[in-house]
Every structure is written in structure tokens, then in C-alpha cells.
Amino acid sequence: MPEFDTLTVGDVVAERVTAITRESLVRYAGASGDFNPIHYRDDVATAVGLPGVIAHGMLTMGLAVQPVVDWAGDPSLVSDYQVRFTRPVVVDPADGASVTITAKVGQLDAEENVARIDLTVTFNGDTVLGKAQVRVSLSR
Hints:
Elements: E1 12-20, H1 22-32, H2 42-47, H3 57-72, E2 78-85, E3 97-109, E4 114-123, E5 126-137
Antiparallel strand pairs: 1-3, 2-5, 3-4, 4-5
């Protein structure tokens, strides 16, 4: 577990590129029960104005926080996690999609020993999660 006193605002605490495939979408749909056809049928996705099959928002959100959980070493240290969905992650049938995640210390609360970790989550160079922030309780 990282120690609060070793952190500085602006520190990059985690970076990761995560691949999402159509198989990932099938597995997530089975686990979550979200079988909306925009997550597996191109014809339905394009009929509703999407550029193609898109990843589940909650899948993207879960994949984005995982590097912070790994860095913290214990998921129970995450006390809050919020995002705004800004763009869909389009999952190509052959190539899938690569989501880039960078986690930086955005704020330190010395009274509570809480680090706010700001996530930058991009797909094809565009931000897909806005105002993505994770609050992590740490020891000194």
C-alpha cells in the first residue's frame, strides 16, 4: 500500500493500456445481465446513431479504476469513484479497442489521509470518461 506522505500532487501513480474485444463484451454482458444489442450488433448500434458496437459504460468505468485499485493494493481503500461518460468506446469486430488509462494524484487531503486520483481515460486519442476521480484512503 502506498503511503500518503510519499505522494505529491501531479504524481503519476498508474498507467495502463487495456484491450477490449467483442469477446470482452460478451463476457461482461453475461456477468452483468446487460444484453442491450448496441453492445454486440452493429446493425442495431448504427440504427440508433452509434458508429458501431460500443463497450458497456460500466465495463469501461471498471477497467479504468483497476490500475488505481492495483496501485492501492486493496479495493476497500477506494472510498468514492465517479465519472462522466463523454464518448463511447467503439469495439471493432477484428481489432477490438485499446483504452489508455493514466492515474495522477489530483489532490491530497492531509487531515483525512485521502488522495484524490484523477483518471485520464482515452480511446483513439479522445477522452471517454470525463471528471473521472477516485478517492483513496491511505496510511501515513
